[in-house]
Amino acid sequence: MYVGISMSVLSRVDFGTNVYTRDWDVLIVLDTARVDAMEEVAPEFDFIESVDSIRSVGSTSSEWIAKTFDTRYQNDIANTALLSANPHVQHTLYDRQFPEDDKDAYFSLTSWDTAFPEDFQYIEQPWQYATNEQYDHVLPEDLTDRAVSLYREQEPDRMVVHYMQPHRPHIANAYEEGRDLTDAERDPFTYLKNGGDRDTVFTNHVSDLEFVLRTGVEPLLRNIDAETVAITADHGDGFGENWCYAHIAGDPRQQVRRVPWIETEAIDHGELDPELNPPETAETSTEDRLEALGYI
């Protein structure tokens, strides 16, 4: 009921900063990245001079997609190539399943004005063919591989590259150690609600943020030419503060609405020779992938 009511209101009004009101050639979206985590890891990366923040237009991926790609920004969208590891692109833009549908809202009178896939210059969804089955994520290096290839070939005016990290499951430590996920890494919010340690979950979130910045974002910035690159998040995550766990649609709390905003540049040093190519068909189920990410 809450989601239905909140979406009925928020689908009609501005609530946050739409990224299309900012100047960027490439927008890097790190799913659920928190501002405090970004501030903690920033000194490790030369391309992060300072960490600012904006208020997101959504507190879930589907809400962020529905609000970001609003037809008011049609001219910008028409010049945008969207490369996303997040299955909500399929769910929202193609299947027209909006936040109230995701949550089976009891009541809603929404008024979305979201663009259709054909309104974009290009859309590709590597989660359909490049998900690492052991860890239920598209690895940052694979998304970067496709992003570099597309940017060099198509030279879009604008490109959005949406990484899934540091969204749960938190895979960085397990992947680098070649092991299975712990309960805290696989489902941090159930772990917390059962009395788990918040520091453990936050540390895992930070590790995944470092992982995507090191193996995904940094190589991307060294293999494309873009004068203005912005790094942000679609929303954050709650780790128990103010009874906020994970993220729900229509949530106004700072943990999920305040997201990083970092500006930098990209210079192509020709270090990466992309190898990943999409198959002619992709059979992956959207529902299966959303369930693996904890949405269903």
What would you say this structure looks like, in words?
The structure is a single chain. The chain is 35% helix and 16% strand. It is built from 13 helices and eleven strands. The chain has a single domain, classed as Alkaline Phosphatase, subunit A, CATH 3.40.720. By secondary structure, it is an alpha/beta fold. The two termini are 17 Å apart. It comes from Haloterrigena gelatinilytica.
Essential attributes:
single chain, 296 residues, alpha/beta, Alkaline Phosphatase, subunit A, seven-stranded mixed sheet, 13 helices, Sulfatase N-terminal domain-containing protein, Alkaline_phosphatase_core_sf, Sulfatase_N
CATH class: Alpha Beta
- The helix/strand order is HEHEHHEHHEEEHEHHHHEEEHEH
Number of strands: 11
CATH fold annotation = Alkaline Phosphatase, subunit A
Describe, in short, the structure shown.
With 296 residues, the protein is of the alpha/beta class. 35% of the residues lie in helices and 16% in strands.
What's the helix and strand layout?
Elements: H1 2-10, E1 26-30, H2 35-41, E2 52-55, H3 61-68, H4 74-77, E3 80-84, H5 88-94, H6 99-102, E4 122-124, E5 131-132, E6 137-138, H7 140-154, E7 158-163, H8 172-177, H9 183-186, H10 188-193, H11 198-221, E8 226-232, E9 238-239, E10 245-246, H12 254-257, E11 258-266, H13 286-292
Parallel strand pairs: 1-7, 1-8, 3-4, 3-7
Antiparallel strand pairs: 2-11, 5-6, 8-11, 9-10
